[in-house]
Every structure is written in structure tokens, then in C-alpha cells.
Amino acid sequence: MKTALITGINGQDGSYLAELLLEKNYKVWGILKRNSVAENQTYRLDGIYGNPNLHLEYGDLTDFASLVRVLQLAKPMEVYNLAAQSHVRISFDQPIYTAQVTGVGTLNLLEAIRLVCPTSRVYQASSSEMFGNSIDADGFQRETTPLNPVSPYACAKVFSYNICRNYRNAYNMFISNGILFNHESPRRGSNFVTNKVAKEAAKIKLGLSDKLSLGNMDATRDWGHAKDYVRAMWMILQHNSADDFVCATGISHSVQDLVNYVFDYVELDPRQYVRTDKRYFRPEELRDLKGDANKAKEILGWEPEITFQDMMKEMVDYWLDYYKGHVKK
Ligand code: NAP
Ligand code: G4F
């Protein structure tokens, strides 16, 4: 039986990845950061909670000793480092904390793996945010595009990306970076733009709200579905050598396009409800992201399957069901 450890197991990606690995008959260990309200913390794991092959342990990326303890218990063949302070706007409010978790936290984990289980295969959740405003002449970002981060979050992810490559080369460890473009789902935090728009449009449709405040509507993103991207994470660690891969759909939409699509789906005119609010703008904005995932397609055979349109419908339907249930209660 294969054994995997997931940091960030209760996050969007961690919960889908845990489901995928359990389906593949893995024993799955997960690290949970202590939270004062335990109930809220594991709701994304509801579908697999109690599975005898799922083991949750307290730990924190900033607490080296806790990582050593869990690695000694789990003895994982594969480690997926998904834990992070992952919100770009919030990284401007908490830059030092973000650097400690999203940057140095990765180094804590690598050093613990090097000491406890150096033959484990390691996946690092790197991000398209690392490219910043660096774009190739054809309008795409790919593995060779220079990294030019424009947020504290992205700077921390660049540190993690580089320290992973350094440990791979210096210690001959199997450490791969997935450079993933934005991916979403109904499990996405509702302060990220896709789920914020889906949730608020559903509330407006049901008469529970009358406005949606957003930041930069001109920014464009390459949005895919988290289920497709956790499949890529697993495929990256099954490859015969450690390497770095971009995962993206190759199609980008502006935030305005996203709003238009969602409001059209719920049959409302966005001009009546959507406003911009400077609170949601960033001190420095990453304007455009569009990824070229040809390397992952050619070497791993990975391709995204779920379209932006189907994903946004799934997210809006989730919130419509949620609030209809809520209203009934
Ligand atoms: P997410 O939903 O924000 O999940 C982050 C996870 O990290 C949560 O389980 C969180 O636990 C945990 N965590 C935060 N601080 C921690 C700490 N100090 N120690 C241990 N655990 C900690 O993020 P996601 O969307 O699933 O993304 C997964 C990873 O991929 C992240 O590293 C993110 O930066 C990266 N990434 C995401 C995307 C995307 O579009 N989703 C794209 C590229 C890269 P609590 O919830 O209990 O705080
Ligand atoms: O949904 P977002 O907050 O995602 P962002 O900043 O692109 O970061 C996400 O994707 C990265 C991969 O590229 C991950 F590494 C990272 O962890 C995270 O998962 O914002 C998307 C765009 C931005 O341009 C933002 O300025 O939407 C714009 N936006 C406009 N109004 C808004 C809002 N974003 C948020 N969160 N809230 C708004 O009201």
C-alpha cells in the first residue's frame, strides 16, 4: 500500500487530492494546523472523514519539530506540500507571516524530509503568480518564462520553488514543482474572486443581497477546475524523474468576463448590482495570466477536462442550493 502525506489537507486542493489518493488505495496522512473551532476546519473532508486509511495529525509548517514528528509517524513515500497562506491580497496585509509559512515553511518541510525520509518523493505547490507581469512574446507563460513576482505571496513562492530545485540538485532528492495556474471549485475560499462572484450572484438571485463589490475587473486569469489539477499533482510524482511542470488550460478570461458569464447564468444584469471598491485592489497587480501546459501534456499526458463554463455553473449551483436550504431552515 502506498503512503502519502499532504500538508494543507483541509484546503481546497488538499481535500480533493486526499479523495483521489484514497480512491487509488493509498494510506493518506494529513497535517492540520490547530484552529480554535475544530468543526469548521474539516468540513471539506466530510466525505472521507472516518475512512480507516485517512490519518490526521496536528502540525504546522512553521513548527519544524511537528513536521519531524508527523514524518516519523507516517513514513510517507510521497509528500504533497500544499499548505500556505495562499491569498495574494492578504499577503500585502501579512507579508512577514506569509513569508514564514509560504516561504520558510517549505524549507522547514524539506529539511525535515532530508533528515527523516530523504527518499520520499516531494510535490511543491508552486504558482503561476511567480511569473508576475513576465509574459512571453506569444502571450503565454511557461516553464522557461522569467520569474518576476509582484506580491509578498509570489516572492515567498519563488523562494520555495528555488529551494526545492536547490535540494533536488544538492541532495539528489526527488522534488518536483507543479507551477499551477488558478484553479477553482465549490470548495474554493469565498474570498477568491470566482467563488465570491458565484456566491454573491446566487444571493442576489435569491433576494438575499443587492450588490457585489469587486476590485480590478480588467485582470485576466487562466481558470481551471481543482479536480483536474490535483490529478496533475499525482501524475507529476509518478513520473520517472523529478522535474517542473506548468499546468494550465491555455484560455484566459477577464474578471469582467467572469462576472458577465455568471450573471447571465442566473439571468440578471450585472450593471445593476456590480460596483468597484478600492478595498479590493492590490498595491501591485498581476494583470494577465495564460499558461502553456504543453510540457505536462507531452511528458505526463495531462490535460484539463472541465471547462471554465461548467465549473462556474457548478459553483453557482452549489451556492443556490446552499442558500435555498438556508432559507428553508
Ligand atoms: P487553500 O484552500 O488556502 O489551502 C491552504 C491550506 O494550507 C489549508 O489547509 C490551511 O489550513 C493550510 N495552512 C495554512 N497555513 C498553514 C501552516 N502554517 N501550517 C500548516 N498548514 C497551513 O489553498 P489551495 O487553493 O488548496 O491551494 C493549495 C496550494 O497550492 C497552496 O500552497 C497554494 O498557494 C497553491 N496554489 C494554489 C492555486 C490555486 O489556484 N488554488 C494555484 C497555484 C498554487 P487552514 O485552512 O486550517 O488554515
Ligand atoms: O481570485 P484571486 O484572489 O486569485 P489570485 O490573486 O490570482 O491568486 C490565486 O491564484 C494563484 C495562481 O495564479 C495562486 F497561487 C493563489 O494562491 C490564489 O489561489 O484574484 C484573481 C483576480 C486578481 O487579479 C484580483 O485583483 O481577481 C481580481 N479581483 C477583482 N476583484 C479580485 C476581486 N480578487 C479577489 N480575491 N476579490 C475581489 O473582490
For this entry, give a set of tags.
329 residues, alpha/beta, Rossmann fold, UDP-galactose 4-epimerase, domain 1, 7-stranded parallel sheet, two-stranded parallel ribbon, binds NADP nicotinamide-adenine-dinucleotide phosphate, binds ligand G4F
Write the layout of secondary structure elements.
Layout: E1 3-7, H1 12-23, E2 27-32, H2 38-41, E3 54-58, H3 64-74, E4 78-81, H4 88-93, H5 95-116, E5 121-127, H6 152-171, E6 175-180, E7 183-184, H7 193-205, E8 212-214, E9 220-221, E10 224-225, H8 226-238, E11 244-247, E12 253-254, H9 255-265, E13 274-276, H10 294-300, H11 308-328
Parallel strand pairs: 1-2, 1-4, 2-3, 4-5, 5-6, 6-11, 7-10, 8-13
Antiparallel strand pairs: 9-12
Helix pairs in contact: 1-8, 3-5, 5-6, 7-9, 7-11
Brief rundown of the structure:
The protein is of the alpha/beta class and 329 residues long. It contains eleven helices and 13 strands. It folds into two domains: 3-183 and 224-247, Rossmann fold, CATH 3.40.50; 189-221 and 253-286 and 307-326, UDP-galactose 4-epimerase, domain 1 (Alpha-Beta Complex).
Task: Explain this structure.
This protein has about 325 residues and is an alpha/beta fold. The chain folds into 2 domains: about 5-185 and about 225-245, Rossmann fold, CATH 3.40.50; about 190-220 and about 255-285 and about 305-325, UDP-galactose 4-epimerase, domain 1, CATH 3.90.25.10. Helices cover about 45% and strands about 15% of the residues. The protein has helices at about 10-25, 40, 65-75, 90-95, 95-115, 150-170, 195-205, 225-240, 255-265, 295-300, 310-329; strands at about 5, 25-30, 55-60, 80, 120-125, 175-180, 185, 210-215, 220, 225, 245, 255, 275. The protein has a 7-stranded parallel β-sheet with strand order 3-2-1-4-5-6-11, sandwiched between helices. Strands 7-10 form a two-stranded parallel sheet. Helix 1 (about 10-25) links the parallel strand 1 (about 5) and strand 2 (about 25-30). Helix 1 crosses helix 8 and helix 3 (about 65-75) runs parallel beside helix 5 (about 95-115). The longest helix has 22 residues, at about 95-115. The chain is globular. The relative contact order is 0.13. The site of ligand G4F has 22 residues, from helix 4 and helix 7.
